[in-house]
Amino acid sequence: MDAAERNRLIAATRGYSSLRGLIYAPAGLMNAASPLLDAAWPRGGTAREWVSVAMFASVVVAFFAALSFYRRRFGVVRHSFSAAQIIGVIAYTAAMFALRGPHSASLHCVWWAAFYLACYLSPYGLRVYSLWFAALFLGLGGLTQAGILPNEQFLPGGTHAVGQSFIWLALSIHGLLDHLLLLRLLPRTAPSTVPNA
């Protein structure tokens, strides 16, 4: 095995947990559909609630099916997260929901741009397409700042369904790209257990 191949396997192994895009893509699709569904079919009726339950159940089934697929295809990769990483993720997520004020939509887009930049940097700049998403959300933030897009378009719980749906659709597409990248990076068969990455 040459150095390039070895580095590729190390990077894919260390980033394995975040590259399993089929695990989070279905949840992104559900969140993308929910605002549009709320706009077209307001909550309150029994049928509407059953649709929401069916969507959630589908995501749960898809989540466990994806876990099973990755386990069968690649085996198990144990990854240890440091306390600093866990605290950083919690603080970063809390900041997203704390964004309020006249420029909060722009800041929210910047949050997503930073999220995709972090995806690019970890692991090892493998996900070049993450930079496309980062640039896209920086551009959207500029459009909201300039008043070209409604300020609430990209805010959680905002009144505009299209903006929130776009955010989650982008996350789903990113997940599919992560999945395809993982298929290219790792061999079809792997040991049942790989040492801590």
Sum up the structure in keywords.
197 residues, mainly alpha, two-stranded parallel ribbon, 8 helices, 2 strands, globular, disordered C terminus
Tell me the structural class: mainly alpha
- Give the overall pLDDT as a whole number: 79
The helix content is: over 70%
The proportion of residues in beta strands is under 5%
What would the principal axes of the Cα set say about the shape?
globular
The stretches of 5 or more residues where confidence is low (pLDDT under 50) are 190-197
For the secondary structure, the number of strands is: 2
Task: Explain what this protein looks like in three dimensions.
- With 197 residues, the protein is mostly helical.
- The protein is globular.
- The C terminus is likely disordered.
- The protein contains eight helices and two strands.
- The chain has a two-stranded parallel ribbon.
